[in-house]
Design brief:
Blueprint lengths: L8 H4 L13 E2 L2 E4 L3 H13 L5 E4 L15 E3 L6 H8 L1 H25 L10 E5 L2 H8 L7 E3 L1 H7 L7 E5 L2 E3 L2 H14 L3 E3 L4 E3 L5 E3 L2 E4 L2 E4 L12 E10 L4 H7 L6 E4 L5 E5 L5 E5 L12 H4 L2 H14 L8 E11 L6 E5 L4 E5 L5 H17 L23 H23 L4 H10 L2
Parallel strand pairs: 1-12, 2-3, 2-13, 3-9, 5-15, 13-20
Antiparallel strand pairs: 4-8, 5-7, 6-7, 10-11, 11-12, 14-17, 14-18, 16-17, 19-20
Helix pairs in contact: 2-7, 2-11, 3-4, 4-11, 12-13
Bound molecules: flavin-adenine dinucleotide.
Length: 443
């Protein structure tokens, strides 16, 4: 595990959690490994179904050490694979069921946050993916549907003013949060419901199947592994890095000019993924991909903090908002996301072994962890629930290629993705490079 601290704006803005370290053997009904949203939402749904369950969560470092405490705070209805691709893969009804469940999950997370984690400032402002060249317009318009409406240049400018933007795809089904505050509010709620939380308590499952936390034995007939990208399964999922920067709080005058009063999350519709939010304290927090994939899927703190990628994000901020050319950036950080070969998440439960795992959210985990945790709880408790029929429950993606093919191919794709954006800027048409690499990336 990386020894890096969580350097995110969010970690910097909260009082650190201080749960005990396990120092004795323990008997439980259910043990959960991992103190991120996968682990905590699984516990949330389990204890809601049966308040008498004896559940404990074990976190190796501290709550939110992983992606849950470092992310862009988009609580979106996005699935890692686009609606069009998913519909082709599994059919209209099965795809629609997933997107409907994601939309419902946003509301449920909002209800929870408003009641138990007000500090997370959950705000349902929708989401805007804007175009800054005609190639992006063509691609974004292909995503128009009942939930995603096209905004003209002037309609967009009424919502948010971004330099050279010429239109946008807008969806109301999206919200924004401070993810660390949401996680800590969730932890407080779980503790009140009787769920035990242990920090600095790394868990290992011995070959015998026994669960060890430090040198303590934890006897639990059911174990949920919610460590996502920290799970060592190099051909099942790869770590890719997403990095972020945040500015100092920006002036009232800047926000008066730019708008975005309802704190809609926003991004440019480029091939290289980027994402931004206006924070509750009026900063810009902007993230994006582009950092290289580490050989043999070995997590790397050097890539997590790539100064080149951080600088690219600062430049992106200045391109969108030229008036910020002298602004101070106060935070820069990064984290790994887990990507399966077909970019789809997994929730797997083996009743005979009493063991389950969930993850593979590919950077869309804020809503998916809630839904995956709910599906996991239904599986573990063997509840009759439609959620167990969702396509990502109890399935396995095919394996990633062996090294060094994986390393060479993925890093070539990262570079080509960048080039596709340059091509679109110059040709003003959807990228030909992307048309060639799209079937390989399988998104
Ligand atoms: C920079 C960045 C931006 C992102 N932006 C967004 C966004 O805006 N919207 C969105 O939907 N998603 C986003 N994501 C993805 C999202 O954050 C993740 O999908 C989600 O947080 C995964 O949650 P998790 O609980 O599965 O994993 P994690 O949050 O990584 O939690 C796993 C935990 O397990 C712990 N652990 C590891 N090994 C052990 C062990 N042996 N014993 C005990 N504990 C262990 C780790 O310390 C960690 O705390 C982003 C991710 C990153 C990195």
């Amino acid at each position: 595990m990386s020894l890096e601290r969580n350097l995110s704006l969010w970690a910097d803005s909260v009082n650190p959690s201080n749960y005990p370290t396990l120092d004795q053997n323990l008997d439980l009904d259910i043990a959960i490994i991992g103190g991120g949203f996968s682990g905590l939402w699984s516990a949330f749904h389990l204890i809601a179904g049966d308040p008498n369950l004896k559940i404990a969560i074990f976190e190796a470092r501290h709550l939110g050490f992983g992606a849950s405490g470092r992310n862009g705070g988009w609580v979106s209805s996005d699935y890692p694979v686009s609606k069009n691709v998913l519909t082709k893969r599994i059919g209209k009804n099965a795809a629609a069921a997933i997107f409907a469940a994601l939309k419902a999950s946003i509301n449920e997370i909002g209800n929870f946050a408003n009641e138990f984690a007000a500090e997370a400032n959950f705000t349902s402002g929708g989401s805007i993916i804007f175009a800054r060249n005609p190639g992006q317009v063509t691609r974004l318009k292909a995503g128009e549907d009942a939930d995603h409406r096209w905004l003209s240049k002037s309609e967009l400018a009424e919502k948010i003013l971004i330099a050279d933007s010429i239109g946008a795809l807008h969806t109301p089904a999206s919200a924004v949060v401070n993810p660390m505050e949401l996680l800590l509010g969730l932890a407080r709620h779980l503790t009140k419901k009787g769920v035990a939380i242990y920090e600095n308590s790394a868990a290992t499952i011995a070959d015998s199947g026994q669960l060890l936390v430090g040198s303590n034995l934890v006897r639990a007939p059911r174990i949920i592994n919610g460590v996502e990208v920290f799970r060592s399964a190099p051909r099942e999922q790869i770590p890719l890095y997403s990095l972020m920067v945040a500015t100092e709080p920006l002036s009232t005058q800047f926000w008066r000019e730019v708008g975005n009063i309802d704190r809609a999350t926003f991004a440019e519709g480029s091939h290289l993924i980027n994402y931004a939010q206006r924070t509750a304290d009026n900063r810009l927090a902007i993230g994006g991909r582009g950092a290289r994939y580490p050989f043999k899927s070995k997590r790397s703190s050097a890539i997590e903090n790539s100064s080149k990628t951080h600088e690219a994000l600062r430049n992106l901020t200045r391109r969108w908002f030229p008036q910020l050319k002298d602004i101070k950036f106060t935070h820069s950080w990064g984290g790994a996301i887990a990507i399966t070969r077909d970019w789809e998440p997994y929730v797997r439960w083996d009743n005979q072994r009493g063991y389950g795992e969930l993850g593979g959210y590919a950077g869309d985990g804020m809503t998916m962890t809630y839904l995956a945790g709910k599906a996991m709880a239904a599986e573990v408790s063997d509840n009759q629930s439609e959620i167990r029929d969702l396509h990502f429950v109890n399935r396995r993606s095919r394996n990633w290629e062996i090294e060094p093919i994986r390393y060479l191919a993925i890093n070539a794709l990262v570079k080509l993705t960048n080039l596709s954006d340059v091509e679109e800027r110059f040709t003003k048409k959807p990228s030909l490079i992307n048309r060639i690499i799209e079937p390989v990336t399988l998104r």
